[in-house]
Amino acid sequence: MTEASRYLSEYGDLSRLPLFSQHTNGSTPAVPKLGAPVTVPPTTGPDVDWSIVAELRARASEQLSQAVASDRNRLDKAAQQELGRSIVLDLIESAMADDVDAGRGAWSPGRQQATAQAVFDSLFRLGRLQPLVDNDDIENIVIVGHDNVLLELVDGTLIDGPPVADSDPELIDFLVFLASRSEVNARSFSEAQPRLHLRLDGGSRLAAAAWVTPRPSVVIRRHRLMQVTLDDLVAREMMTPTAASFLRAAVRARRSIVVAGAQGAGKTTLVRALCAEIDAMEAIGTFETEYELHLHELGRHKVVHAWEARPGSGERGPDGRQAGEFTLDEALVDSFRFNLSRQIVGEVRGKEIWAMIKAMESGTGSISTTHAADAVAAVRKLVTCAMEAGPHVTQGLATSKLAATVDLIVQLSMETGAVPGGAQRTRRVAEIIALAPGEREVGYATTHVFRADASGVAVPDVLPDEYRALAHYGFDLAAYLSTQAYGVQP
């Protein structure tokens, strides 16, 4: 019996490690309750040698690829993970034996488990990023180089995070591996394709850039507030009860709404809260470049058809399209055969605005998001997006379409202030404007139904006559009128 064998018999069977006795099923982690206490995230334990993890992950990936390629029935994801556990177990035993035979000492049970988990996470999950993504206190992970990591917690606090790789090239290599391994959402990430947008297991969204930036840049957004309502956002002081009653009534009255704000201002969270006001029996269609709303997973509505755009690959054909490309516009056209009650187009950054306009033209009470500094600027931003479709779209056409289809724009603000030990972000509904066709010179007219007061909170301002009818849908008109005099006047 070798020294390694005696060591294994002394410490027991590695298959008893939690990694192999508790299966990872890829389910979405539990969403924390609103108001739950926030703790500082743990850093990586000292028992992991990441150079060994990188080597074992490469060997495990090669063995797994060979096994999958040789299996004529094609292993599904669960079977691949089971096979992966077996491969990782063999590699860990081999690495332990090599160290013992070389006189480098035996591995402790803690190191066994930590290394096995790290290899498994690198192979099937997010490697060194996984503990951060699993931490329910963390909402956003911002990476500018392997050792420059900023964590935004669910309460808005900003703190430094641990390194996520040993070098920038190692971080890039892992991102390339991560982008290529998905069966249904694979992306190319290379010097020829230096940007990456990827939906991760569990609902997180990853955006990355390399080769065109000084250091690899990554942002991971994990949407913590999933089962969220307007009342929840009132409790978090994101808006007043009066503003919530207005938005609730607008959704029920099938007004089309655009939620605008800076990156990370909470636009997607607000859209989920607005969608929670849609009747559970209405058939909903969602259209997104990457799944973020996850209405099809929340269980609030009986029927949710969720479409996700798919980038093509390879050279472009005579029509300018890559093979396999599937656009939001194509999804929207298909959706008209699905008997939908609502069509909700997610984030609008460019030409996808025409899918949003078509959805709103159908009169279903659509909801979308965009980036803008203020509510009126959001209109100009959307006009610019519409004109990106080509020279056939004039400013006049784009303006008239938007003025005729968008009813309300809800502007979110985000402020970052210093607090002991770091910084903290505060998010609020700052404006709600009504959009309507207007003067020929501009093409649209805006009315501030709610305007930000001195503290940045949206308070009643001017209510167009046609919006008084929202009282039939639950709008607290009396509360609006009673506080109107205290609003910021134009």
TrEMBL record:
Residue ranges occupied by any Bacterial type II secretion system protein E domain in the UniProt entry: 215-411
Annotated GO MF terms: ATP hydrolysis activity
Any single Pfam family the record assigns to this protein: T2SSE
UniProt name for this protein: CpaF family protein
SUPFAM superfamilies: P-loop containing nucleoside triphosphate hydrolases (SSF52540)
Family, similarity comment: Belongs to the GSP E family.
Alphabetical list of InterPro entries matching this protein: P-loop_NTPase, T2SS/T4SS_dom, T4SS_GSP_E_ATPase
Lineage, opening ranks: Bacteria, Bacillati, Actinomycetota, Actinomycetes, Propionibacteriales
